[in-house]
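Quick illustration, no need to memorize.
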Amino acid sequence: MKIPSSLGVCALATTLLMLAACGGPSASSPGAAPERTLPPTITVEVGGTVISGPAILESPEQAQELVSFPVLVADAEVLPAGLELEEVDWQPYPEENTELVTLSYRDAENTMDLTIQQIDLGGRRTAPPSQPHEEIIVRGTTGYLLSFEHAEGQEPVALSWEENGTIVSVSTSGMTLEQTLRIVESMSPVGK
């Protein structure tokens, strides 16, 4: 899977660490939908195309067809000028009964990037990240602003929070925290 920056790799690592820190599956409540179990080999058909995971997809809509959680996308009107969706990745983790969707945005000059990652919690609970962080309110819930050592005067931003049974991580470089928060607040499920 291609992730645009080293910050994206850190955000992915943080997302997976938060998932690993989760407790075991929670007990289903009466009347809850049955848990979806992923097969050992992931091959699905979407719009007449057979896809084997992991895969680079054509669109967030295609990702939404593959996963049971709402795939969040940034509002194009809030994105900084020139920042465009470059790649959509889907990564199943059958041994963990979970899936990861990554949306990678970049500008033509490679001065800004945005990575949105969502991984299904599979009914587990998260724990705060083990790396240095600050608790902040993100989309009406407690989120974590992560600290990274960085060079070249860049001020990368990485946020992580739980929403709709998923861990959502957003990492940016070449943008301020305020720009990143505006993007995060503008995010909505695909098709809405």
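The chain is about 15% helix and 35% strand.
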